[in-house]
Specification:
Blueprint (H helix, E strand, L loop, with lengths): L1 H38 L1 H27 L1 H26 L3 H29 L1
Helix pairs in contact: 1-2, 2-3, 3-4
Length: 127
């Protein structure tokens, strides 16, 4: 019986400690960020985007070192083709250019297929 009470008290203290940690974190970290974001939203947005871009670039560089240069270049080229296809499709839809939409989607698909086949042939030659 006494063991159950101690266990429940310990569980309650762990929960209370978690709540206290959340409160302290919100006061120490979140409140200054919120104040900064509300006072200078343009600068805050730019800094957050820059931090996100640095994080993504770091991840890309680390994974490129692991994968190798040729494979990374093919990945980057395919990523650019897909991004260009999406952007072309988006802007052609925004400006009501249906023909350009079809052309951009078809061109992106064809270029992606070409890149995939070139990469596949490069692997065969290497092996």
């Amino acid at each position: 019986m006494e063991l159950k009470i101690k266990s429940k008290i310990f569980s309650f203290l762990k929960f209370a400690g978690f709540i206290a940690a959340c409160v302290v974190t919100s006061i120490v970290v979140i409140a200054p960020l919120w104040l900064f974001a509300s006072k200078k939203p343009e600068l805050y947005s730019a800094l957050v985007l820059a931090a996100a871009a640095i994080f993504v670039l770091r991840k890309i560089i680390v994974s490129a070192k692991k994968a190798g240069v040729k494979r990374s270049l093919f990945f980057a080229a395919k990523l650019l083709v897909v991004a260009a296809g999406f952007l072309g499709a988006y802007f052609s839809l925004v400006f009501w250019q249906r023909i350009l939409f079809i052309v951009s989607v078809i061109a992106a698909i064809i270029l992606f297929q070409i890149l995939c086949r070139v990469e596949k042939n490069a692997k065969k030659v290497r092996a």
